[in-house]
Amino acid sequence: MKKFVLMTALAVSMAASAAEVSDTTVIDKADKITIMTTDTAQRVTVFGKQGDNGYVYDQSVPLNKWKMKKKKENKDDADEPSEWDFDLGLGIGVPTSVPDGMSFSPFKSLEWLLGLRYVYTPKNASQSYSTGLWCNWRAYGLSDSKMFVKGVNDVVELGQFPEGASSKRSSINVFSLSVPFLFTQSFGQKRNFKVTLGPVVCFNLYGRINYSYELGDDNISVNTKGIEYRPVTIDIMGMFTYKKISAYCKYSPMSVLKKDKGPQFHSLTFGVFL
Predict the structure, then answer these.
(1) Count helices and strands in the chain by DSSP H and E runs
(2) Could you give the residue range(s) of every CATH 2.40.160 domain in the chain?
(3) Which phi-psi region, left, alpha or beta, contains residue 67 (left: φ > 0; alpha: ψ -120 to 50)?
(4) What pTM did the predictor assign?
(5) Rounded mean pLDDT of 183-209?
C-alpha cells in the first residue's frame, strides 16, 4: 500500500512539473512517506525501504506557478462567506383563530413570494445569517356561500350571495413588502440539509376584498379597496431545506385586519421555495 501511495504522489508531482522528468524511482515497503506542497514546489521524502531501514529519498519538484495561483483563487472563491439567494415561493393558506360562522378554503387561500436575500456564512461555520426583501401577495378565500363586503366605517363584514348564484368566490387580498431576518443551521458533510428559523417583518401596502359569481347569463365581479388591514405585521417563519428545495411554514400571531374593522383571524401558510 505504501508503495502504491508513493508511486501516485511521484506521478502527480512530475505531471505538475514545468520540466518533464523521465526518471522513475520505485521503493518497496517504505517505512514512512512525507509529502509537502507549497505554492512553488512539492517535496517528497521517503524514510526506509525493504532491507535498508536507514534509506532516505528526498526529491523536490517545482510546480507550475500559474496553475497553483488559479487553484488558490478557486479555493478562495469556494470559501466566499457571502452570496445572494433568489427566492420564489408558493404557499397554501390555512388561517387560524377563525370566528364562528366563517371558514376558509386552502385552495382559494394562496401566497406568492418573490425576492432576494443576502446570505452570510462565517468561514468554516455551519451557521448562516440572511436578510433581504420579498414581494408578498396573500389571498384569504372563503369556502362557504358567504362573501366579504365593506360596510359602514370601512368595516369588513360577511354578506350573502344572491339566490341561485354559482361559481362563487370571495377573498381578502393583501400585498406586502417583507424583510426576513433568518438564521440557518446546516447539517451533513456536504451541508445538504438545513433548518432555518426567524421573523419576517411585513409592511402591508395594499389590501382589498373581492367577490365574483355567475347568475344566469351574467358574470359578476366586484373589487373593493380601502379596507382597514394592519400596516405592519410580523410572521414567524421556519424552513426545512434539502439541497436547493425548501418547505416552509409561516405564522403570524397578529390578525390580518385591524381590531373592530372586520373578522379577526391569523395567517398560517405552508409552501415550498424553489
Answers:
(1) 2, 14
(2) 79-273
(3) alpha
(4) 0.69
(5) 94
